[in-house]
Amino acid sequence: MQSKDLLQLAEQFGSPLYVYDAEKIKSQYNRLTKAFSKVEKLRINYAMKALSNVSILQLLRELGSCLDAVSIQEVQLGLHAGYSPDQIFFTPNGVSLEEIEEVHALGVQINIDNLSILEQFGTKHPTVPVCIRINPHVMAGGNENISVGHIDSKFGISVHQLPHLVRIVENTNMNIVGIHMHTGSDILDIEVFLYAAEILFDAARNFKNLEFLDFGSGFKVPYKKDDIETDIEELGKKLSKRFNAFCDEYGKELTLIFEPGKFLVSEAGYFLAKVNVVKQTTSTVFAGIDSGFNHLIRPMFYGSQHHIENISNPKGKERFYSVVGYICETDTFASNRRIQEIAEGDILCFRNAGAYCYSMSSNYNSRYKPAEVLWINGEGHLIRAHETFEDLLKNQIPLPESVVNQ
């Protein structure tokens, strides 16, 4: 997308505003499938927690993607977006048996990540196809909050508990059709990924009726110019060869599954915000925008860096700014960042705003959530309206005056 297109959309739909480029989503999807073209059976389950707008789900469905859902609500959104139950994979963590039963009743593939639920579900439903999430105890990911495969993680069944796991499966005569792992997000070293894959292969040998192996995702995307990223092509070459060899050893052509979220939508996203005030203090120049971590929490939550550019003054001389929001506590997007000279009223563009940005937004400080626009075929389509005061009140129930006045 061009800066002029983004400026036009900000003028048309207002700010703050999320914009997603359909062509970038398509190119990332095609890049991933091409990297693993040597695998006979490949399935991509989009991790919809990254960005769950129904229009985005529809776009990915048309590309051939399936879904990875982590809640009953995400499952229902997927069904609403036109996915069939067999195209949705349910990978929750710490949910109740009741929620798992509810998802099972919809005909969706269940992935179980703890021994207690595994035994309860297997005892009641021994013939239902089940996937098991293994914790490989491999530390990977760009931040401790997104590293989910290490020994202290709440996710998955420890690979060291395999004997216990196998005993439960044998006692219940469960139908185990898949093994799953996910080590974390922002993985750079593909050798770490391949090492974890070997642990998954070893675990798979304990089960004779598998149909697929799910390797999760966590591929890193570049967040700034010349930033490093996961070498998908190299990973595709190495893991495809190893996976095909394992299928030969196993005696069956298994399906290779990935569940990318950030990889597919992160770079497609732009967050646009207007500068309310430029404030000079004794040591800092602040650019205060019409947004805050209620709309984009990743810099505060993960320490993540989103490249920021002043698309209202793209050729301006760069100066140092701290970009801050309007939330009533520390609310910093960038500290002492070189950005083209900023004036009040300018539109700042945050890159890599497609994944875990709108989906983690809130109404903190009773602020409205922004609109979302999909840029497709050279046009901007509103796919979520800007919230209004009525939206804030929608589910609130005022006390009767008789109670208040007591």
TrEMBL record:
Record bears the keyword Plastid: no
EC number(s) stated in the UniProt entry for this protein: 4.1.1.20
Amino acids binding substrate: 298, 302, 329, 356
Record keyword Lyase present: yes
Record-level Gene Ontology MF annotations: diaminopimelate decarboxylase activity; pyridoxal phosphate binding
Positions contributing to pyridoxal 5'-phosphate binding: 218, 356
Coiled-coil ranges from the UniProt annotation: none
Domain of life: Bacteria
Record's function text: Specifically catalyzes the decarboxylation of meso-diaminopimelate (meso-DAP) to L-lysine.
Subunit structure: Homodimer.
NCBIfam families linked: lysA
Family named by the database record: Belongs to the Orn/Lys/Arg decarboxylase class-II family. LysA subfamily.
Protein name per the record: Diaminopimelate decarboxylase
Native organism: Flavobacterium flevense
